[in-house]
Design goal:
- The structure is a single chain.
- The protein is an alpha+beta fold and about 300 residues long.
- A hairpin with a 4-residue loop joins strand 3 (about 50) and strand 4.
- It is elongated, with a radius of gyration of 22 Å.
- The protein folds into three domains: about 5-105, Zinc finger, CHC2-typedomain (DNA Primase, Chain A), CATH 3.90.580.10; about 120-185, no CATH class; about 190-295, Dna Topoisomerase Vi A Subunit, Chain: A, domain 2 (3-Layer(aba) Sandwich).
- The protein starts with a helix and ends with a helix.
- The protein contains eleven helices and 15 strands.
Length: about 300
């Protein structure tokens, strides 16, 4: 017999992963929840909801069809509780054995130095389980990620790949995934601006996860315009906007390039408040590494 702790552990196995393994994909999103055509019955409109945060499902066509992944496996596989737990154990063991290998085959990045020759196949809401796990492992709440990030699938001469990212101000895309050591650019490298109306201050971040980390750390959306450089080499592209602000809040990385970027803004005559001390004083590389340490 399973202990209460073992059962709770099985309930942490992602419903989205389980459905994806059966070839069942979400049709749309409602807030932070994903909507599917019901796998338990026929429906004409998506009526089966999954919360990735709570990891529970709810079939709105039948009040009795809701609950944990164990409940779903019992209903979908038409098996009892004990057999459902055994199936989930095998599924979890298999994921532990080859999950990272599968991810590496499907998410390999193109060369940072040679981004040409790609074709973007789709830009959609964030929904792939591997990318959602990656975002959560970086300390970012999925609701935050859904508001700012997209899922981008693309091809090049080496195959089909995907990552999480956003469209930059110049029309390119910046992508990250679990196996990418650095961000990659599809198109020309550029900055990303999130404009806050009537803002006379600007927060400047080096990367996308530093920006998202600020939202999580301060527990609120931005209250001023935010610029993500995506590389300190893009700082010159942001200077025209920065000169219009009364105060710049700098969240550069805790390294020589980051310190030089902050000094470069000051040399341009900008009123810069260096906010990196909140993580550099604790010897963290950047805002995201600092945030992850608090979780």
């Amino acid at each position: 017999m399973k202990t209460h702790e073992q059962i709770n552990q099985l309930k942490q196995i992602s419903i989205i992963d389980y459905l994806s393994g059966k070839g069942i994909s979400p049709v749309s999103r409602n807030g932070s929840n994903f909507l599917y055509h019901s796998p338990l019955r026929q429906d004409s409109t998506p009526s089966f909801s999954v919360s990735p945060t709570l990891n529970v499902f709810n079939d709105f066509g039948n009040d009795a069809d809701k609950g944990s992944i164990i409940d779903l496996v019992m209903k979908l596989e038409k098996i009892g509780f004990v057999d459902a737990c055994s199936l989930l154990e095998r599924m979890d063991d298999k994921r532990e054995r080859d999950g990272s290998q599968t991810l590496s085959l499907s998410c390999r990045p193109i060369s940072q130095e040679d981004p040409e020759g790609y074709t973007i196949k789709s830009v959609a809401n964030l929904q792939h389980p591997a990318l959602m796990r990656y975002v959560k492992n970086r300390g970012i709440n999925l609701n935050t990620a859904f508001n700012y990030l997209q899922e981008i699938h693309y091809t090049n001469s080496k195959g089909q790949f995907f990552g999480v990212g956003y469209k930059t101000d110049n029309g390119g895309y910046v992508l990250r995934s679990e196996i990418m050591q650095k961000p990659i650019n599809l198109g020309k490298s550029g900055i990303k601006t999130f404009t806050f109306p009537n803002s006379n201050t600007i927060s400047v971040f080096e990367g996308m996860f530093d920006f998202l980390s600020a939202i999580e750390y301060y527990k609120r959306p931005p209250r001023c315009t935010a610029i993500i450089l995506n590389s300190v080499t893009n700082l010159s592209k942001a200077i025209p906007q920065l000169t219009e602000a009364t105060t710049i809040y700098s969240y550069m990385d805790n390294d020589e390039a980051g310190r030089k970027a902050t000094q470069k803004m000051r040399d341009a005559g900008l009123n810069v408040q260096d906010c990196s001390s909140m993580y550099s004083d604790k010897d963290f590389k950047d805002f995201n590494e600092f945030l992850a340490s608090t979780i």
